[in-house]
Write a structure and sequence with these properties.
By secondary structure, the protein is of the alpha+beta class. It has two domains: 5-64, no CATH class; 68-147. The chain has five helices and eight strands, in the order E-E-E-H-H-E-H-E-H-H-E-E-E. It has helices at residues 45-53, 56-63, 73-84, 97-102, 107-119, and strands spanning 5-12, 19-26, 29-36, 66-67, 89-93, 125-129, 132-137, 144-147. The protein has a five-stranded mixed beta sheet with strand order 1-2-3-8-4.
């Protein structure tokens, strides 16, 4: 089976000076993966694409992720917010008015916690830590493929 992966961009993460986000496209989707440049003797766009295209295992890893559409609308927005934050994390603090309006429905937070548990995302989404209703760690964006927006 042929896996169509196109390298799109690499940008520095906030994790470590040698860890970068790899942004790639596959069919009608795009995804992210963390790449530690210390693992490679030479680091450039061409070499990354060559490494990926030379390994069916890597291609499968990058293309057989779940699509973000399996998540509720609110969970999708939290995950997508991680992409655009400068610190690779999202915090929904206790004084967040938008969340407070939404959480007036007592079951909202419980349903969200159950969804996170069901999807196996507990490593990336935490509840009621560090003075926040919700903390979302940036590594969560590696777990999904995202639909490309039509222009």
């Amino acid at each position: 089976m042929d896996y169509d992966i196109r390298f799109a961009n690499v940008f520095l993460s906030t994790y470590d000076s040698s860890v970068y986000w790899l942004y790639y496209e596959t069919n009608r989707n795009y995804g992210y993966e963390l790449v530690d440049i210390n693992s490679y003797s030479c680091f450039n766009d061409y070499q990354i694409l060559k490494i990926i295209n030379g390994s069916n295992t890597l291609k499968k890893l990058l293309t057989y992720k779940r699509n973000i559409s399996i998540c509720s609308h609110y969970l999708q927005s939290l995950i997508k917010d991680c992409i655009s934050t400068p610190n690779d994390m999202v915090f929904v603090e206790y004084d967040n008015e938008n969340f407070l309006k939404r959480s007036k429905d007592k079951g909202f937070l419980k349903e969200l916690e159950e969804e996170v548990e069901k999807l196996g995302l507990n490593e990336y989404i935490r509840f009621n830590e560090d003075d926040c209703f919700i903390t979302v760690y940036g590594g969560i964006i590696q777990q999904f493929l995202f639909y490309k927006e039509k222009i």
